[in-house]
Amino acid sequence: MPTLLDWFPYSLIATLSFGVAMAMYKFPAAKQLDRYAATFWSLAASTCIALVVFSSAIPRIAWNMNGIAALWGISFTGIMLLQMYALHHMETNVLFPTTTTSSLVLTVLIGLLAFQDPITMLQSGGIIIVVIAVAAFLFRGGRLAYAPHILVVGIGIIALSVFNKLLQKIAADRYDVRAYQIVQYAYAAGVALLVLIMAHRTRWHTALFGRGAGIGVLIGAVSFAGGAAFFTALTRGPFTLITTIHSLYTFATAITAWLLFRERLTKRRLVLIALAALGAILIRIG
Questions:
Q1: Rounded CA gap, 148 and 177, in Å?
Q2: How far apart (Å, rounded) are the C-alpha atoms in residues 70 and 190?
Q3: What is the C-alpha radius of gyration for the chain, rounded to an integer number of angstroms?
Q4: What is the pTM of this model?
Q5: How does pLDDT run across 227-241, given as a tens digit for each residue?
Q6: 3-state SS assignment for residue 211
């Protein structure tokens, strides 16, 4: 029987690390850094760390991982770039609560339609709470508070996030998780490099080592630490409690962004973040 100390410290580290990493996505917008370079170096750092930490799993890398890993790399790179773009136009304490909880709702609905997964009363209540919270985030006085194209970007983030989760589920069921993570990060770094080259064309080699590289490495290291801690917690403790705690990462993101960038953190937004987190918790435990 696992005790609280077996898994809770890892769950807490995972939640805090993920929250801090998400807040750091704001650096390219706040400090005029290159988001393409930041994205590439974040994924390159994760690849290098995975190679070291999961070195014993390298012999278990299989050719049949390539297809799903490539799709994951494309979708995850797209998510990162869209999030960094959106953060030029909105704050982290709006973007992440709305897109994360919306993608969770969409995942549940896909499960209902595609796999006939039942939806419980708790999940139904969670979905209603999320819809109310997201609407309150995005609308003020009956009007959309952000430009329509930002709403389209948000929908893109949500759709790619759901697709990404489905790929992760398939990979977790089929492959050695540690070996697969090496491959998926490598593909994502490769995709990010191609995007950087296409975005900067003749000056890509200058941009590669320019403004954004350092913060990218830091984001990659913090993100990997969070992912590793989350995986460790899942192997030692109860899934429902761990994922419930993880839903609170948006508070860590909001507080970190307030400390780093002095983002507005009003009582209204704190209440809405709490509502969104409550909705996510109800959906997960339902």
A1: 39
A2: 9
A3: 19
A4: 0.88
A5: 888 878 877 877 777
A6: coil
